[in-house]
């Protein structure tokens, strides 16, 4: 029995090149998402939209993304063809993203510069962009469970993907650092030009890696053989709703995405408006975070994994985030340079939490690959909706633009919202995530033909 299991190609550790080709497949999504969460609110308020209107634009994109993940997941489970969905989503992202950070196209066509029309225009393109983004994300995430049944290799694929997420983010901040240095934002037109060039450069870099992924990754045979084995047939939604672990993994993933996305959205505001650091800091501080995350993600690929380790590493990341959140809440402007040190620990915590949270999805799916896309899609739906609502609530408390706010008597009100968004909210989410993880039973969860392996991660 054991020998037969060892001969199953789906339970063997996969090679490094397969991991690499898979890992680069989310680069376009990652670099555009990094720009979305880091600079969208900042960009929209700088060109004149109110914080509430800027929040509406982001919320429209998040809502479209959330519903798109559900429908995409269902269609992928029904018809398969991960690479086709991935390619179609990537094309839609590449076409629409420049309009999210470009000028208001309807305003130019109608010769109308009203803020309402601008808000509608940016909201429309934000929704289109996020629909394409969802198709790429769900197909790429679900593919992990169909490439291999080896749980350790699944973590390898997730870790590699997360490592290239950091590469994508670092690429964005390198691009942003150059653009902000070359083009000065002295007017609305110059600001739009800055972010348009950032968008064009991000799309170019991301598309190059999409081509590498599509050429180097084969359509997973495990999904293509779905009708040949009873354990791989399409699984109805209600099956997952009856499992306690589904709700626990969903909660952990939701909270982890809140930690990363909310903190990323307010990081630029915090270093520029609260700490009043140099303009270069809004690129350097995030870059430090992602360098730390990249190093940790690479190291995580070389660890043999089991359920207990997933819980332990996630908890470690959550605890680090709690301390960092407290430091951010208390950090005075006079020692703003300490933010660079905090950034190192934020990067470590982000990688630990993200890699293990996504890997918990693979433990939940196990060998039931007929429902893997629905699991990824439904969890992403919760992620998008919660992040959109959280950012809308926080941003709605801003009644004026950041620059004006810093020069009036309500400065402390603005600063408190930014600190809450970057420090308090992620710290509380980390705390709840650690508590939920403690009560998980991951060791007995999977239905794999082999347990979580204690072999080296890669061949």
Would you list the SSEs in sequence order as H and E?
HHHHHHHHHHHHHHHHHH
Instruction: State Rg.
Output: 22 Å
Helix content: over 70%
Question: Strand tally, please?
Answer: 0
From the helix content, strand content and strand pairing, which structural class follows?
mainly alpha
What is the chains' assembly state?
Answer: single chain
Q: Mean of the pLDDT scores?
A: 80
End-to-end separation: 23 Å
The helix count comes to 18
Low-confidence stretches: 1-7, 226-232, 400-414, 446-459
Question: Care to describe what's here?
Answer:
With 459 residues, the chain is mostly helical. 76% of the residues lie in helices and 0% in strands. The chain has helices at residues 2-7, 16-23, 27-46, 51-79, 82-100, 105-110, 115-147, 151-182, 188-216, 221-224, 237-241, 244-274, 281-300, 307-330, 338-365, 372-396, 402-405, 411-438. Helix 12 (244-274) runs antiparallel to helix 15. The protein is globular and about 60 Å long. The relative contact order is 0.17. The model is unreliable at 1-7, 226-232, 400-414 and 446-459 (pLDDT under 50).
List keywords for this structure.
mainly alpha; 76% helix; disordered N terminus; globular; 459 residues
Topology, please?
Elements: H1 2-7, H2 16-23, H3 27-46, H4 51-79, H5 82-100, H6 105-110, H7 115-147, H8 151-182, H9 188-216, H10 221-224, H11 237-241, H12 244-274, H13 281-300, H14 307-330, H15 338-365, H16 372-396, H17 402-405, H18 411-438
Helix pairs in contact: 2-8, 2-9, 3-4, 3-8, 3-9, 3-12, 4-7, 4-16, 5-7, 5-9, 7-16, 8-9, 8-13, 8-15, 12-13, 12-15, 12-16, 12-18, 13-15, 14-15, 14-18
